[in-house]
Structures are given as structure tokens and as C-alpha cells.
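Quick one:
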Amino acid sequence: MPPHLYLNFVRLPLFFRILIIALLIIFTFGFLIYIVEPETFTSPFEGIWWAIITVSTVGYGDIVPKTTLGKLLGMLLVLLGAGFVSTYFVTLASTTVKKQTDILEGKVMFKGKDHFVIVGWNERSRVITEKILKSLYHAPVILIDQSLESNPFSDYRVHFIKGRAHIDETLMKANIYEAKKVIITADQNLDELQADMNSILALLAIKGLNPHAICVVEMLTNEQVPNAQRAGADEIIQSNLISASIMMNCLSATRMAEPLVSLLEQFNGSRFVFRSSISFIGKSFIDTNKLLIEEGSLLFGIKRGVDTIVNPPHPFIIKEEDILLVISKTENS
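Output:
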């Protein structure tokens, strides 16, 4: 065998090499038995059939060697070929099991596209993943985390990658180049400043590999918000600020937490939408709200520049650059 062919053969996966050797043995002995006993084995196909049945230890007995030389070939085939065939099936089974184990343990690269990437494993990422799976997105979810030992979800649409999100190798396993959206959650096992720094580091790595990916980042401290903005965050969620606002409302009235959380829960993308103000320029906030109510929507605020104004006082006139914050009961609004 030429050296380059031998090197190419050695580089093949083990079960491929064993399969090739087993097939060579089967075809060789099939042709040899046809040459030795042409009266019994009337065609090469019958010889190959006999060789396969022999090495697989099935032994139908429909066609067997009659001569001493033919029987010797059969004995040699059993000693030589059966071992390779058995080894092939054992290797194939162990390779399959190892592949499945590697997938569960987050060692296998994801090869799809237009997927959601969620960084960090905690209660928030669990809830987010479950909501994506139940939504109409129909997109796979890639979960990146260092602390998990295996995929916490049994759903085939969730692919687990074990590793740190600021390392290129981990992001490449998640096929970050083809990712649609990325959600980076804060690590609750670290102090708030360190958790924010890790989130910003992951954001920089992700944006460096895929500048077009939409990144939503959870921040715990106000002082790191400008750094997250400079790092390229498309959306910044200040979870501590949201929690503090809910708690403050609870100070002014009892039993306020449940309705407030329920209200936030309904802002799931299909209900909370942004509307252009082009059709409502020059109209008051109240008149605009009346028109939207007739469409089955509710206007509850205006985004004007960097300011968000909820339920502005009358009279509040809609301007060209305003963005309407609308709750809609239809998904197509």
C-alpha cells in the first residue's frame, strides 16, 4: 500500500477502518470459495453470501463447502472475519453511546442557524428557555454554561454547550456566527460587580465574532450600564432596578406585587409592541389612544428620544420622532 493511502486509512475513524477490513475479508473469501468450489458456489454472489452468513455466525446452512480446502477456508474465515465483524458492531455501539454522551455533556458543536443563545444557567434562563420553547418562534435554543454537567432539558430543541461564553472556542461550538439573538444573564454566584464584568466580557466576545447578533444583557449595577452600551448591547435589562420598582410599589399599597408581575408577564412580545407615530402626528395622547382602542390596542406610553413617558398629562401632543408604546391583544399588530 502506498504511504499516502496508508496514512489516509489510519486517519479514518476506528469503526470505518474495522468496517473496511471486514468487507475486504468477506469479499476476498467469497471469491476464493467460488474459485475453489465452483460446483457448489455457482456465482461470486453466492460466495459473498456464504461469507457474510459465516462471519455473522448466523449459519443458515443453505450452502456449505464440500471439499477439504473449502472447509479450511470456512474455518479461517470464522477465525479471522468473525472477530472483525463483532469488533465493528461493538465499536459502532460504543461510538454511538459516546456521541450521545458528548451531546448531553455539551461537547458537540451546534450546526444549525437562526437560533437563540442563552448564556448562564439560573432560574431566569430556565424560564426564558421554557417560554421560547412554548412560543411561536420555532427556533432552537443553545444554552452556554460552565457549571452544568449535562443538559438540564430533555427537549431536542435545546442544545447544551459546556464552557465560558467569553472564550471563542465555546462560542464557535454554539455557532455564534449564525445566531439570531443572544441573552446574557448575570451570574448570581458572583458579586454584582464581578457578574456585570463577566457579562460585558461575554458581550464583547460575541459581538466580536458576530456584530449582527441582537444581544440582550442583564446588568445588576448602574455603573456598568455605560460599559455594556459601549460593548454593543442592543438591550440592557437592569433586573435589580425592576425588582426595586416593584418593591417600592408594594410599600404604597399591599398586595401589589402579584398584579404587577402578572402585567410584566404579559409583555411577551406578542402583546407589547412599538408603533410608529406617523399616522398620529399632531394628535393628543388621549385622541391617539381612542383611535388605537378602536383597533383593539391600548396606548400606555411614549418613547421620546432617551425618555420614556408613561400616561403623560393632558394635553400631550404626538410628535414625528415619538414611538408609541402599545399593548395589543393580537399577534399581528
